[in-house]
Each structure stands twice: as C-alpha cells, then as structure tokens.
C-alpha cells in the first residue's frame, strides 16, 4: 500500500474559481500540477464538464502570475462564497470500477438502478449533510452519476484506498469542515446513522475521527475474521479493532457484549489529510484494518452505537439478495 501526500492548504472562504481552462506551458518552477482532469491531449485541458474541477498542488498558488503567464484564464464570473459559522459536512462516496471479484460493481443494476445510485439516494435523505459527491476513477461512473443528478469528481486511479480517494475529492469542497466516508457498495446505509456521525463531528472539533459499531448477536461471528470487532472506553472512544475475538472472554461471568465495526468513517477536514499522509502502520498491515493507522498514531475514534446493519455488496449473489430485500421494503425506511 502506498502512502499519500498531505493535502496543500486550501482557502475555506473567499474566491471560488468555478470552472476554468488551463494550459500547461512547461515545467517552470512552481508551475501548477493538475490533479483532477478527464483526458488531455498535447497538454491542453479543454471542454471540462460541469462535474470537473481543477486543483493545484506544490508551491503556493499565485493566481496573478498564472493568469499573466497564460496558464490560467477565467471563463466564468468569480463567485464569493458566503461566510458561515456553521460547520459544513460533505458525504463522499468512493466508487472504484476495478474489483477482482466484481468488476464494474458501482454500475451493477439493482432493482433497475446502479448500485452507487442507491447509496447516493440514501445519503440524499440525510438532514445534517450539506453536500454529497461520488469520488471515482472511471468516466463511466462520472457519466452515470450525471444521469441521475449526482455530483462526481474524477480522481486518480492510483489511490490505495477509498480514504485516499475521498481526500482528493474533498479538495473540491474547501469550505466543508467535516467529511463522512460512506462506502459505495452499501445500498441500505442508514441516513440516520450518517446524520449521527455528522452531528457529532459538527458539535465537537475534538473528535478527530468517528465510526460506528453494532452489537454482535450471533456467537459464531465473534471468531469470524471477516467480522471486525471493536472495544471502546466509557467515553465511547476506541481502544482497539481486530479480526480476532475482542475481547477474549476468560471470565464469562463478566457478561461482555461484543461489537462489530461498521465500515463508515467521519473526519475533521484537517485530520483526513493528516491520516492519508501517514504511511500504513504496523498494526494496520498486520490486521489489514486501515483504522488502526489512526489508533497507532495516538488518535482514538469515537464509536457511535447503532442497531442498523448495512450489508455490503461484494458479489453478484449478494447483489441479488439486496435486490430481493429492496423490493420487499419501503423506500428509505
């Protein structure tokens, strides 16, 4: 797994450049590097769609210098973003085309809609979220998102994880202080759970990262390595995550309740960029659990308890089971 660079500092208010056209005229020192784009020929970046934004990294961006040199020209009026004391929350849905077991999974039709559309529609029902974006590495997903009215950002195909992908997408929303990572293969995700995470982050900036867990009701799942367990302190902050039984029950009289970790995460904006800048940690690599990177670097995750289980889709058989479930239940229940 490769580590990602930390994000450059971006303004939280002021000028939004909207949609621009740029031409890379050479490798002069400090010249901008385009991170998000469709496809360029001969160095020209033209005809950008409404779903596309350009971002610049490297040295501090000097807009006046860029415009004078011909690197950048404005194609639409400048927009002044309104000041707001309220923390703004972005839901980012990573949707990768490539999958060993299920290529093209985000666009697999379930009950007549692409899988990722089901996830997006659930997020649309949230009350504590300001924006929703699909972060993808494939133009087919970008085009599908546009067809059902979703915002999408084309991101690098080289990202080792969905967290790295949403970190790049979050650069398109510099005025959003908190980011929720909703898995793109969970069409039954609870909007209420997303809101719970968002409100917790908005209310307490000291919560750097947040996730969710549900009680384990089947004893067989305690020893199942595919069911990730979590233990937390009296304040609801994580102590450890593991694929092994956690905790190990030496004394049954303690009546310990086991909890399974759910794959939804929320971040304070600056911590998201810090997280992807850290290299994969020893415990993360040992357990193959990305959240242990935060734990091993001294950051505990706030754990929100829920009864809502959101099954993921990893195979066509699971997609068929979800379709049957969707047809049996009322929408957005």
Report on the architecture of this protein:
The chain has 333 residues and is an alpha/beta fold. It folds into two domains: 15-80, no CATH class; 89-328, Alpha-Beta Complex (Spore Coat Polysaccharide Biosynthesis Protein SpsA, Chain A). It is built from nine helices and 18 strands. The strands form six sheets. A seven-stranded mixed β-sheet has the order 12-11-8-13-17-14-18, with helices on both faces. A three-stranded antiparallel β-sheet has the order 4-2-6. The chain has a two-stranded antiparallel ribbon with strand order 1-7. A hairpin with a 5-residue loop joins strand 15 (229-232) and strand 16 (238-242). Helix 4 (162-170) crosses helix 6 (269-277). It starts with 14 loop residues before the first strand and ends in a 5-residue tail after the last helix.
